[in-house]
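Students often ask why we bother predicting the structure of a whole assembly rather than each chain alone. The short answer is interfaces. A chain on its own may look different once its partners are present, and contacts between molecules only exist in the joint model. In this exercise we take two input lines together and write out one structure for the complete complex. Read the inputs first and try to guess which parts will touch.
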Amino acid sequence: MLRSAMLVAAKDLKIEMRSRVLLVQVVPFAGVVFFLFAFALNQHQSLLNEASGGLFWLAVLFVAVLSVQRSVSVDSEDLAGESLLMTGIDPAGVFLGKVAALTIELLVLETVMLLAESLFYQAAIRSVASIALTALVATLGIACAGILYGALSAGSKVRETLLPMLMLPVVSPVLLGAASVWPGAGHLAGGSRWMLLLSGFAVLYLAVGSAGYGVLAEAR
Amino acid sequence: MNRMQGQDIDGSRLQEKDRLQGQEKDRDNPLTNGGQTRSATVVRLLGSTSVVLVALDVWLGLFVTPPDRFMGNLVRLMYVHPPVAWVAFLAFGLTAVTSLGYLWPRTRDHRLDMVAGASAEVGVVFTALTLVSGSIWGRPTWGTWWTWDPLLTTTALMFVLYIGYLALRRSTGTPESVAKRSAVAALIASVDLPVVHFSVLWWRSLHQPPSVLNPDLSPTIHGSMAWTLLLGFVAFTLVFVWLTYWRYHLAMMRSGIDKLKLEAAISERQREAQGTLEGIGAGVSN
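Now the answer. The structure tokens for the assembled complex follow.
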């Protein structure tokens, strides 16, 4: 299963490296989102600084929806996903591989977005280790839920509207937890509890996704 | 003579066979719904009983029970709000159980999927009623229509999750693939059910802890108020069963219509193809 996962992850990352869709389209989109947040808050510097954690993770969720759609469309084209499963590969391995690829892609995007946020909102990047740990656990949870809901909406003609509707309410605990443990958010006292929530979310969706991906892939 | 008798016997056997086949078809066909008059009477009885019990609950709640020492007349909303919330949980619980039954290969049956969909639809209506009745209660009690309380927030999330589930049920695909995907979505959404129920205990909440289903299982409500609340639970549960039955029945009828439309389209194509072949045959012979 792990070997299958690594092969699928390598395939998805190779496709992304070649097409550069995330770099060319999603990164500029994240920049636009940061600009729009600033306009919405009337470029109020101290307000933007205070809300930087929540705004960052909200932008990550928007970017994640686009990335999941990209990940699903890669498999939908020319029945690539079905062909992959017909090789007899373990569906759980496919799920884990796609989650791994999406997690890596999102972590790269988050690094770029963090730098952009510190530039535009003049938000000081403190406690890099804490941010990195939060980002890793939260992103894993988002990727698991995203791939699972991507597979759920894959066969539908209204996939583009169905996916955010299904995925965003589900990942709202991640937004809440990740924004709460953001350095300077003022909730660090309960940080370990939020980290527990983020870890629990990631483990739950990892388990549900590994068990249910085969059924969803069959039903495509 | 014997030969003619033999023909008659064969004919009556064929007629009997046709009659039995017709009955079987009627039983399977959700449109004709043949031979189900007894169940129709039960459903009618269930509907009228639930309506009478809801009316009785409203009358007891508004005119018979006393006002609460702390909440005053506001307590009268409590004879509706907790039962409505209970039905929402019951509906989504049934959706989860039937979805699990559908996903389990040994128990897979399209009727389970239909029940899951019907129950979720009724559940969404009752969740909306829970949010609205809670909001009406919250305005005079907390001074606001809405607050970011854990129970309210998780209930609103549950509402959105099941709206998403219903949207997924209406998505395109073969009935089997949509049913499978919906069943998985229902099971994932059901994770929110215990979170909503225990949110009052897990986080600091403005909302009071459950009066009946609390961790000590000792109701904090007594006398006529307790009986009225209990009646509310029974009445709204019957309303749920009644509405879910009709929604399920409607879904079965729609599925029957779809099947008939498909059969009609196939036979039309077959007739077209036969006509074309006959035309070609006539052209060749000419």
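Check your guess against this: Chain A has a mean pLDDT of 86.
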